[in-house]
Amino acid sequence: MPEDELSRSSHSNPGKSLVNGIKTNPASNSPKSSFSVPVGPPVYVDLAYIPNHCSGKNTDPEFFKRVRASYYVVSGNDAANGEPSRAVLDALLEGKSQWGDNLQVTLIPTHDTEVTREWYQQTHEKQQELNIMVLASSSTVVMQDESFPACKIEF
């Protein structure tokens, strides 16, 4: 391997050249993000799981600009670790506002948390403007000795 390639490899700088499988530029002075998103068109999917239990560690407005889903699942339920993150929920609003079309988006929280309740109440008008609907867990599934909230999703 040529010396210049070796100096750029993860062997010479372990854990620094890859973030979530994406090559990073150590010379970059970008304070906003520690990883770069490859250039390309947005991806449209029916259902997307917001990464890392809706933690702000890996998800920003760029995620929602690029991954355009009819349904987003929010599974965070750990307030001590910032899950779900208010910043990520706000990033959904920011990202969706850049779409240029008014496709319906449904947000599906898997847990009823203080963060999601406050975000819902404080941004309800913006959600309506952007055609975002938040599903509440209105059903309960009971399995043996365990019960948990559930939402029915139809495609």
UniProtKB/TrEMBL annotation:
Q: Which domain of life is it from?
A: Eukaryota
Q: Where is this region: Disordered?
A: 1-36
InterPro entries named in the record: MAP1 (IPR026074), RibonucZ/Hydroxyglut_hydro (IPR036866)
Supply one GO molecular-function term: actin binding
UniProt biased composition (Polar residues): 22-36
GO CC term (a single one): microtubule
GO BP term, example: regulation of microtubule depolymerization
From the Swiss-Prot or TrEMBL record, give the protein name. MAP1A protein
Encoding gene per record: Map1a_0
